[in-house]
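User:
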Amino acid sequence: MAYADDTTWVAKSKEELSQIIKISDEFYELNDIEINGKKSELLVINPYQTKHQKNKEISIEVGKNKDIVYAKRGSEAIRHHGVWLSEKGNSECNTKIIAREVTRMCKVIRFKRASVSQLVYMNNSVLLPSIEFRLQTSFLSKNKCDQIQRLI
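Assistant: Predicted structure:
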């Protein structure tokens, strides 16, 4: 038996996604693979909803057990390949993670004997590429970047 990890399905509508999941469930059953619906996440970006659907939760059935997976709402974020995404496209989650990364780096190097050029190297070649990767889906103002980087 095998388990599928880090599978991403992209669709234009709930009906299209249901069809993709149905086909994949058939494939998984043929190959003795299980999907754990309890570990699955659903993110709907720009959902089209009529007035009477506005407050209804968006969900989909996943896996052999037909587990119901509910869509993340508002600023709730999911992690996909190290980048945090949310329905609202909010950068708040990424900003917190980046601030924690900078703080962690500062704690690690605080009492180390390092030259200025070594510190510049760690900042430019280790910390900033990591931050740049995480910000693929976010834009921060110069003031926010300066505030986060101030500890360094």
